């Protein structure tokens, strides 16, 4: 590696695309060469002078290194040493191959749409403060330049801002990449991809990673390209912050001080040392808010205080304490890249998960009575009641923020008005905001409602909007690791979950029934679309409602194959005492053991819960 020469390229205005010479002879052949390397057993070489421009070398192990980096609609991996049992796999050469493939994908898509060759395709890159960002950014710039794109460096940014950089003038880039691993440890990093139409889907990212895998496997020198010319630096975050300020000013329309509608409001922001500090000084402060007492605003890629995550108990507890100590009107918690958020009301009550969905539902249903609200299928029965009591419709759907958002897009296309899509993790998107999951925009909506309530004479605070939301009596989340080599784990996990579905459909688990949502064409455990254009399934999961003669439906269970790790998540909720234990015991005894799946899955967490309860 160290002795390999490093090539150089320049970021020119009309970057040329890589071309490969055709094979000289007309002969076709196929051969298999055996290697003694323990990691790479076979290399399959295919060559055709008439159908291929160059010899294609397919190395299974090398290609798998790239394919395993796909994480649903994102790319994620280990970028730095420091995790026990994990090796670095998100390397600069891997990132360069992925960025190049994304650039080529964008160019092809634009050419297909416009019916002609395109030039000067512009792609921006933003990043969170992770310490691996600098070296991996160079790899992204190099890959995009190899694809023939013009590249623009946004520097420290947020995921929503990267998407908005494809829309807001004068920037309006053709595509954007955000480098982040969200709330994961400092050792991780990743890529999120956007065009003017929104975030890429899992099948699209799979296509890009597949092409990148072939590039990576064919490059015998696994050294990232050295840049001669730095990309153009742009300050998009100032434009994005102004965009948010303008929304607040226009929608509050304060009768006394239009330009400072947050005057006499104190708002605490906890950015967790991620990218969210801008919201304090570039949005709230400039609108007149008092932000004294805000926490961890300076970006620090080591995240020294706590995980930047609105689901993190430490993050919420620190924010709650700051709100109470300063008698603030609102507390805000952002995740690292600000595509998620949570809040704390003026009484110190944390609002995240189901509560945050309920709060946003209450606000949206005021503006759009009768609208459908899409959530993932791990939300409570009480949330469904909360939404329907206010005249809304609740669509339960697949876990995964991209799945939830895309379902809302498709429902609107099918004529079902859907203004809010939210996942329990805090990802939330609104139809009015380009179906973008933007944690800052969610907070903007909440702040606008808080100010309106104050102008109407209410001092109760935003928490009063969800005071009648019931909480589930019991809730438990467990994990079952898949006993398999990594390359076979996905198939084995799918087999286990499909067997679960089969057991329910055959009546082998009495009182259990696959859940459905007929009004929005979702069936078979909130997984399968039953309309004319079903979305592709990226991970297998089913929700079953559980009933008995005494209580009727008293709970539900959700089994989900993780796209992050080789395991299956089990979520159980109950409205009666002992319900979660009863459901989990049936899962273990009458499904896992009876079906033999306890040989495929490590059920030690299940056992421990059943025995200790």
Task: Please provide a written account of the structure.
The chain has 613 residues and is α+β, with helices and mostly antiparallel strands. The strands form 7 sheets. Strands 5, 6, 7, 8, 9, 10, 11 and 13 form an 8-stranded mixed sheet that branches. Strands 24-27-28-29-23-30 form a 6-stranded antiparallel sheet. Strand 28 and strand 29 form a beta hairpin. Helix 2 (92-114) packs parallel to helix 3 and helix 14 runs antiparallel to helix 15. The N and C termini lie far apart (54 Å). The model is unreliable at 1-58 (pLDDT under 50).
Question: Summed up, what is this model?
Answer:
By secondary structure, the protein is of the alpha+beta class.
Salient structural properties:
about 625 residues, six-stranded antiparallel β-sheet, single chain, eight-stranded mixed β-sheet, 15 helices, 30 strands, Phosphomannomutase/phosphoglucomutase, alpha+beta
* Strand percent estimate: 15-25%
User: How would you characterize the largest beta sheet?
Assistant: 8 strands, mixed
Query: Which word captures the global form?
Result: globular
Helix content: 25-40%
The SS-based structural class is alpha+beta
Q: First CA to last CA: what distance?
A: 54 Å
Report the uncertain regions. 1-58
Spatial extent as radius of gyration: 25 Å
Number of strands: 30
Please count the helical segments: 15
Mean pLDDT reading: 88
